[in-house]
Specification:
By secondary structure, this protein is an alpha/beta fold. The protein has helices at residues 21-34, 42-45, 53-66, 75-92, 103-109, 123-132, 156-165, 179-187, 202-207, 219-224; strands spanning 8-11, 18-19, 98-99, 115-118, 141-143, 172-176, 192-195, 212-214.
């Protein structure tokens, strides 16, 4: 029997398994509307996604107030806006969100592997979305951005997954669409495959020098088999 190149596969969620950015930005704009702020364009908010809810909300508020997403924001306002966003996203997270093409079919082909999802999205939404699309059953481990003390780009979630599977990190493969996924994998000593159809451009991803760069989810099967 041919030895497998990798013994476990770990996936990011947003931008990798699901196309969710429009529902995220829609919930952002509903939050801004609640506070009487003007809405942001999708093309602007798109770049604020990826570091969890609180950082998303902070960046949006900072951008609205000063034009600088890294500027400071009043803590009380941030706390309240974080709360409102979570309510809005809970209500609208499945308005337009869908899995990317051939995700379910690819996961089906990988059913013999230990599989995990590691997202920076809060666990409650990560789990709910996977369950809604019937994809939760493919994964032996699901982690959100609040499941552990650290989230990507810190290597802790990836090392935790490898430990749960009792597999050394160099024998796992991380699949994601962002610089954070690539950085987390490299810091964990884990090979990484970047997908180009998600939230980051091919140019940006290539500059991070991932081990693999694929344009379609089904291309992953060629790598692992």
């Amino acid at each position: 029997m041919k030895k497998r190149l990798y013994q476990a596969i770990i996936f990011d969620l947003d931008g990798t398994l699901i196309d969710s950015s429009h529902d995220i930005i829609s919930s952002v704009n509903l939050t801004l509307e609640h506070f009487g702020f003007k809405k942001i364009e999708y093309e602007t908010g798109f770049h604020f996604i990826g570091d969890g809810i609180r950082m998303l909300v902070k960046r949006v508020l900072a951008y609205i107030q000063s034009g600088k997403p890294d500027a400071d924001v009043d803590g009380t306002l941030l706390d309240r806006a974080d709360e409102i966003f979570r309510k809005m996203y809970r209500e609208h997270m499945l308005d337009t969100t869908v899995p990317y093409p051939f995700v379910a079919e690819t996961l089906e082909h990988l059913a013999e592997y230990p599989l995990a999802v590691i997202s920076n999205k809060a666990f409650v939404y990560t789990q709910a979305i996977l369950k809604h699309f019937g994809m939760d059953s493919y994964f032996q481990l699901i982690l959100g951005g609040d499941s552990l003390p650290q989230k990507k780009p810190h290597p802790q979630p990836l090392l935790h997954a490898a430990g749960q599977f009792h597999i050394e990190s160099q024998h796992c493969l991380m699949v994601g669409d962002s610089e954070k996924d690539i950085t987390a994998a490299k810091n964990a000593g884990m090979p990484v495959c970047a997908v180009t159809y998600g939230l980051s451009s091919k140019v940006t991803l290539r500059a991070q020098n991932p081990d693999y760069l694929i344009d379609h989810m089904t291309d992953l099967l060629t790598i692992v088999t």
